[in-house]
Design brief:
Layout (H helix, E strand, L loop, with lengths): L14 H6 L6 H12 L7 H19 L1 H6 L6 H10 L3 H13 L7 H9 L3 H15 L5 H11 L8
Length: 161
């Protein structure tokens, strides 16, 4: 059996058309395509924001850990990421992400508060984030699969441009 291919970019497909590509194309590439399409929209609904938040977490943590998630523009999703993960059934990852957020020791979870916290050197925080990275990488939770299932269960909520 041939390995699924990588879908390079969004080219105007509908939600149903992208969902139908499962099996031929890798799920993570389909999710990245949904993300790309949604980033072209002016306004987003709650389900679309869940997709963007979870995809941002996956991309950033897999490429550089929680500190990268909090440092890059993906930090905008920090206030909603735990609820988003729980919504799609990723309870383990939600718990790990809660620990990562707690390591920041913030009075409130805002982008500005995250930026201010990370501007200061803090070995204890960085060690705690590193432990969260390890937990994330070893959790075994199929985040991409659950996110894709969430889209399949709610296709009417994903209106692509």
């Amino acid at each position: 059996m041939t390995e699924p291919k990588w879908l390079d970019q969004y080219s105007g497909q509908t939600t149903e058309q992208l969902l139908a590509l499962a099996g031929e194309y890798r799920i993570d590439s389909l999710l990245a395509t949904f993300e790309q399409a949604l980033q072209e929209k002016e306004s987003l609904n709650g389900e679309e924001l869940i997709l963007l938040a979870v995809e941002a977490l996956e991309r950033e943590v897999n490429n550089g850990g929680y500190s990268q998630f909090f440092t890059n523009s993906s930090a905008e999703y920090a206030p909603q990421i735990v609820a988003s993960l729980r919504h799609i059934g990723c309870v383990k990852t939600a718990e790990i992400t809660e620990k990562a957020i707690a390591a920041l020791e913030l009075p409130e979870l805002t982008v500005v508060a995250i930026e201010n916290a990370l501007a200061d050197s803090n070995d204890e925080r960085d060690d705690a984030l590193g432990r969260c990275d390890d937990l994330y990488y070893n959790s075994g939770e199929d985040i991409a699969g659950r996110l894709f299932s969430f889209i399949k269960a709610n296709p009417e909520c994903f209106r692509l441009p």
